[in-house]
Amino acid sequence: MLQRTQFLKRILTLNRLNRIQLRCSSTGTTSDEVSHFESLASTWWDVNGSQAILHRMNLARLDFVQRIIRNSIALNEEPTKASQDDVYIPGYNYKAFFPKEVSNAVSQDIRMTASSKLQKMKLNVLDVGCGGGILSESMGRLPFIKHVTGIDLAPDCITVAKSHARSDPLLQGKVSYHVKSLENVKGKFDIVTCFEMLEHVDHPEAILNHAWKRLNKEGILFISTINKDLVSWFTTIFVAENILGIVPRGTHHLSKYVNSKDIVQWFQKNEGSKYELLDLKGTMFIPIKGWVEHDCPNVGNYIMAIRKE
Ligand SMILES: C[S@@+](CC[C@H](N)C(=O)[O-])C[C@H]1O[C@@H](n2cnc3c(N)ncnc32)[C@H](O)[C@@H]1O
Fold first, then answer.
1. How many Å apart are CA 121 and CA 137, to the nearest integer?
2. I need a labelling partner for 148 at 20 to 30 A (CA). Which of 31, 142, 182, 216 fits?
3. Distances in Å between the alpha carbon of 57 and those of 61, 127, 282, 285?
4. Nearest CA to ligand 1 atom 12
5. Cα 289 to middle of ligand 1, angstroms
6. What is the DSSP string of 261-274?
7. d(Cα 160, Cα 11) in Å, to the nearest integer?
8. Which secondary-structure segment (H or E) carries 151?
9. Is 38 touching ligand 1 by the criterion CB < 6 Å?
10. Which residue has better confidence, 110 or 237?
11. Binding site membership of 251 for ligand 1 (Cβ less than 6 Å)
12. Whether the CB of 130 sits within 6 Å of ligand 1
């Protein structure tokens, strides 16, 4: 009996040591941030609980991800490999020149070809800062996703994510979760997601650097986070945390917010011509409509997709 107690104590001490090491080796995430999310883990999947706002934005994020992937599918092979299945895409604005019936037929052909190519894809995803798994799970259910690896520094969030995923047989073998820092991830992925996590780290550029290294050529990095401006402070801290209470107090710190133009500049400086900004949209929450996209990505929340060339 004594031996068993000692053994358990040893395991807990080792666990604690592991946690401390993880926090130290993380890409600038303080233990306060990790403890904050650990304390919210038990209510992660309550759609009206601590992560209500993530549940509400999830469909909009999925729409964005699917649209970007669909639009970035190369419809035609190189000319030498062209087959009868390839779709003819006019190299000009055909909608303005062709009669309506013809341009509709071309559009439909393009859509159908993209859909059938999408159904055959089997993409591997790395979800950085997955928390309790809201995004990882919904990505795992998409037919063209082979596997989602979710990583987070908060062990309690990972425990919740694992346990929630076990309740859906469709997710078995499609998602896996690990308490791990990004710099310790091995292997390459077709998609890397950093959703609502860059605003919680001290060195976002280190996250960009490591996330980029984990991408396959032609892979896509998806980011959603918050610009450092007064509008963001007003909506995400003053209103959401202090007035409405739909986000737990202390979740956000204006000083950690990251401007979308700084992310673009980081890519210009570090990746030169080896990246393509596929899309960058502002996002906002409208109570009667939910999360919507808009064309002012330099204000408030935003979402973006960058492809590795
Ligand atoms: C607001 S939650 C977002 C969860 C999830 N990405 C989503 O949008 O549904 C932020 C998460 O990032 C995690 N996190 C913060 N810094 C991290 C880091 N350096 N590496 C991995 N996870 C981190 C936190 O523990 C927390 O679970």
1. 18
2. 31
3. 6, 16, 13, 8
4. 129
5. 26
6. HHHHHHHHHHHTTS
7. 20
8. strand 145-152
9. no
10. 237
11. no
12. yes
Residue spans per domain, the chain:
2-73+121-308
With a 6 A CB cut-off, is 57 part of the ligand 1 pocket?
A: no
Q: Please report, as a single letter, which amino acid is at residue 75.
A: L
Percent of the chain predicted with pLDDT > 90: 71
The amino acid present at 105, given as its one-letter code, is: A
Does any ligand 1 atom lie closer than 6 A to the CB of residue 26? yes
Contact (CB, 8 A) for 297 and 282? yes
Cα 175 to Cα 124: distance, rounded to the nearest angstrom: 10
- Give pLDDT tens digits for 58-104: 999 999 999 999 998 877 655 555 555 566 666 677 777 788 888 88
Alpha helices by DSSP H, listed for the chain, are: 2-25, 31-40, 52-71, 94-97, 100-120, 134-140, 155-165, 204-213, 230-232, 260-271
User: Is 149:125 a contact under the CB 8 Å cutoff?
Assistant: yes
Angle ∠(54,56,58) on CA atoms, nearest 5: 65
| Residue 147 is labelled as binding a ligand | no
The two structure tokens encoding residue 274: 């080896």
Indicate the pTM of the whole model.
0.87
CATH class of 2-73+121-308: alpha beta
CA of 290 to the centre of ligand 1 (A): 22
Cα(258)–Cα(267) distance, integer angstroms: 14
Residue 29 pLDDT grade (very low, low, confident, very high; cuts 50, 70, 90): confident
Rounded to whole angstroms, the Cα distance separating 238 from 296 reads 21
The answer to the question of whether 307 is labelled as a binding residue is: no
Between vectors from CA 235 to CA 243 and to CA 23, what angle results, nearest 5°?
95
Query: Which SS3 state, helix, strand or coil, does residue 62 take?
Result: helix
Strand partners, 291: 285
